[in-house]
Amino acid sequence: MSQMLFNPFQDLIFDEHFCFLSGVLTNEEMTVFPEWLMAYFKFGDERVEMMDKAKSYHYEDLKLPCSPEVKKAFDDLDLKIQEAYKKGYEGMAALDQQLLFQWTGRMVYGLLYYEMVYERDVLLRKGEDFELSPVLRKRFSEFHLMLQSIIEPISFVGKKPWSIVVFPLKYSADIFSYRDDAINLMFSFGVNGFGFIACLQDNGVIGESQKEVLDKIEGHVLHPVQFEELYARFHYTDYIMQYSPEYNIENLDDRITIEVDETGKPPHFGHWDEDVYAQLLSNYWQVYGIEKDHILPPQRPRLSFLENPYTKDFVEPDSISLPF
Known about the structure:
alpha+beta; 4-stranded antiparallel sheet; 3-stranded mixed sheet; 11 helices; 39% helix; Immunity protein 49 of polymorphic toxin system
């Protein structure tokens, strides 16, 4: 059955007349970011930059061609997310993680779609062919297949292909914080009440690598500076992860099953470079005026708002004097 499903990365098809998910001809479209989310947090007229910083769009102008079936599926999903959102952390934490994968995946894929179109058009103007490495083509194809689970009978068997963590979070009212890395299929989302971090195709490896700190967080309402640090840890761990997720994909008569293949080379990580990590973390903490030199002071351990650098005890959020 999977051979019958649309795969835009096979022939690099990113055309405004083909549904981004099903590939059917269409004249309809949907926003990359849910309309209710942009309206509630009033960021539709703000700008988002492409990776090379040379091109930017208003969030509300980011739109994907879609079939009526796909639009309805995501509209229905949005209603479920909105209902959970109204209940705060408890509502979001109770959601099936597959729903969070699909909801987050829509935004991450939408940004990835625009990156593909932008890069293709730049190369065409130069008279060059648009190509992707075999590694990226495989990763994005599998991600697209998983996202099709919102409209197709696709099920995930056993271990899930993602790491998604949801936790209580304290922000000032009506603040919305998100970060994404479309190429590495990562996303973070934080508002007053809850936050979550999603690595959409790591087979749970990154979540497992951060289990120690996640266990310490349990039962606490995080300060935003802790949320940013946690995402930095996830992001940098993804950067040094030396692991290629593999899947057993079975085509049955009326459905597809996707199972994480754990028979290959086990995951491992490259060297954790404190200097590189501190630079990444400083990018996330710049709103607090925290620079790289503050994070890595001479002759002292790295600054952390998650763990005491000497005892490794969890830092109580109420003890942090920074604004939220």
